[in-house]
Amino acid sequence: MAETRGVAWKIGGDQGEGIDSTGDALATVANRMGYYVYGYKSFSSRIKGGHTNYKVRVATVPVEATTDTTDVLVALNQETIDKNVAEVPAGGLVLADAAFHPVLPAGHAGAHLIELPLTQIAKELGSVLMRNMVAVGASAALMNLPLEPFQDYVARRFGSKGAAVVGPNQAAVQRGYDQIRAEAGHLTQIRLGDPHPGDRVVITGNDALALGALAGGCRIMAAYPITPASDVMEALIKWMPLVGGVVVQSEDEIAAINLAIGAGFTGARAMTATSGPGFSLMQEALGLASMTETPVVVADIQRSGPSTGMPTKQEQSDLLQMLNGSHGESPRIVLTPSSIPEAFADGMDAFNLAEQYQCPVLIASDLSLGLWTQSVERSVLDRTRAPIVRGAMVTERDLEDVPSGQFKRYALTESGVSPRSVPGMKHGQFLATGAEHAESGKVSEDPANRVQMMQKRFRKLEGFAREGVRREGPADADMTLLSVGSTVGILREAAGMLAAQGHRVGLVWLRVLAPFPTRALIEALAGSRRVLVVEQNATGQVLNLMRTHGIGHEPRFHSFLKYDGVPFTPGEVVQQAAAVLDLAEVL
Amino acid sequence: MATLADFKTSEKSWWCPGCGDFGVLAALQKSLVALDLEPEKLAIVAGIGCSGKIGNYVNGYNLHVVHGRVLPSAMGVRLANRDLTVIGVGGDGDAYAIGMGHFMHALRRNVNLTYLVMDNHIYGLTKGQYSPTSDSGFKTKTTPAGNIEAPVRPLTTAVAGGATFVAQGFSSWQPQLAELIQAGVRHPGFALINIISPCVTYNKVNTYDWYKQNLTNLASDDAYDPTDRVAALTRLNATDELVTGLIYRDPTSVPYEDRVAHLAKEPLAHQDGPVDQAVWDKILAQLG
Fold this sequence. Notes:
Structural class of chain A: alpha/beta
CATH class of chain B: Alpha Beta
CATH architecture of chain B: 3-Layer(aba) Sandwich
Number of helices of chain A: 20
Oligomer: heterodimer
Number of helices of chain B: 10
Number of strands of chain B: 10
Distance between the termini of chain A: 43 Å
Largest sheet of chain B: 8 strands, mixed
Radius of gyration of chain B: 20 Å
Largest sheet of chain A: 8 strands, mixed
Structural class of chain B: alpha/beta
CATH superfamily of the largest domain in chain A: Pyruvate-ferredoxin oxidoreductase, PFOR, domain III
CATH superfamily of chain B: Thiamin diphosphate (ThDP)-binding fold, Pyr/PP domains
Number of domains of chain A: 4
Shape of chain A: globular
Strand content of chain B: 15-25%
CATH architecture of the largest domain in chain A: 3-Layer(aba) Sandwich
CATH topology of chain B: Rossmann fold
Helix content of chain A: 25-40%
Shape of chain B: globular
Number of strands of chain A: 21
Strand content of chain A: 15-25%
Order of helices and strands of chain B: HEEHEHHEEEHEHEHEHEHH
Helix content of chain B: 25-40%
CATH topology of the largest domain in chain A: Pyruvate-ferredoxin Oxidoreductase, domain 3
CATH class of the largest domain in chain A: Alpha Beta
Strand order of the largest sheet of chain A: 6-5-4-1-3-2-14-7
Distance between the termini of chain B: 56 Å
Number of domains of chain B: 1
């Protein structure tokens, strides 16, 4: 059977009804069977009530984006049908709990409504809580998946609670499966194709970032809970004790970053993770880290702003703040991961870069990358993929001949990087101050010194060597799609669809925003007839940033923006790209 | 063994002649010698204001942070390396205005560090505005008709807020101040030492003479029990906080870092190897 780019299954209901765990069940089982999954959760900033849904795409090839359509919609209430049926194509399936007497709205008669007494069956088995497990079994039948892996999953997940819990839950899965087979099996045309078993895990970008940080030597983390970044802290709280480190839930984000700076000054690898509102609070401290040349790592899992904005909705609108936030002019590094492997790599490399360049390293992630789940090869999560490199440091031996209190922590060097000491090293004492200072660290307002020190701090990044741009597809493309963050996965999907239509389409994405990879980007785009810069914000921050570096003024550059809180679908990008291709032909 | 000279720097002071901060600096340096510390094992984290310059004058690993954030930074230093003696320093504005949020949480966390607050009831470096500890009625550039606010009561707040060591010194009373600093450093937990350090330029009310007339010294009261929290609050209330000495100490104090499960014994600052393969496998096994 041919490869399939996926069947999309979605479950919806009220928040607090176990929607997440049901979606996780399908994603976990499909991944273990050897399918590639992409999980997409839509939720609101409330604990119970309000519509929520979880869409899982199951494919025989790697997928990094959600789909425009839903093949199987599982509805626990009428609202789920009303809000989501538009994406169910003719012939698609709507599985609904008979308990709420579901109806298909007018105009969607092409979909098959399958009523199943989910609540009734669950009650018969002992608890209405098992309604979702009945839905899982029914979904397995509708997707023509074997039942055994689901039963194994139930046994593992509830194993610690004993047979009294496992048995009824397995019975619930079985009942849902059997009833669909008997009554509605003829309605489904879904054939997933053969899976490709491998050693894969289903994780989020936040998990990958946390794992990368751990592998990169992070041993102190401080953060304040905020959607969608809290999972980074929660993951590290689970794992940090295993490596002897510590996670502090601080009183606010200002405390979080200043704690990390204190730890970085002392020589520990330290980080914080936050989202827009918290990142705004950290601005002053970013300047301190830059000025004192203290390594620190800050992850901003962007969400819709400004102010409280839409806390559970996707946006890529903190980019310019990451580049320029904080008063004065303070050099920093900004990395942009676009996938699970890149989130792991950046989480890891950020700590080396922070110590090598002695400055803040910011990781620009976003809600879609941070929260949605993807299948990834376990081998990607390689703890040894890069050795820990601490950058220029003095040794106690180097300091032997330095009179106590005379160490030049901020010595002017050709690279701008000055070998540093850390507390505990004899004769390495110095003052690290946010005030302008001389080579010794002593406060200085001497004009000549000021200029030398500003130049030194900026000079450090002139030699920045990390890969800043990546490209896939033909260099002489009719159109190159360009973006950052989670939007890149969507563009990859769209590029495939455009290629299937006969277009020569390329994909370029930025891996670093600061220092800006000007030359690499010019080269990557040189042969492309048109460039569509796709980003999820209202003002075109990426294209504007490119333009400040002299790229993107020509008419071949086009901007496609979205800021409604919902990620692009591949179909939307294809449509816009096609329109731009047509336009260019006219020109 | 280090001497007084080892804790001095070549930096000339920026403080006004007669400033109380000179007394704090002298008592601190004497205490460091008495505690038998070495400069490389000392970290001073200082805030913004006249008080924040103290790190410029003491030889150690000193971090001069942004306004009001001494305590989180000092906590980061201490967690990164428990072999260090960490001393936070700020003024009444840094500690009790912009930094008050962190102060309250430092009290209950009880990280092992010593916090010296140089309190002069005025904003000196910005040239004479009222501070959170300024008395009601006090006239300054920003309270021309007299302060209409009630002052912060830092010592009462600290005791009530869960502090395990609360003391007050006076920059003119060197032996007692040095003893309090040493006791604070030895205390296993967060030690607040509020230090009355008069501003000779902008505070013409709360002068050296005024304090000498109004302060009472707990050292002359043999009956006072500093481990009695209620007695401490009563005494602070009765004296309007115009009292020096050890006000409260919790003899059962266990510092934060000793309560962090599985925190490595060796400094985190020295850890730079890869994660152990067995540990990594254990973590990856938890993934879905």
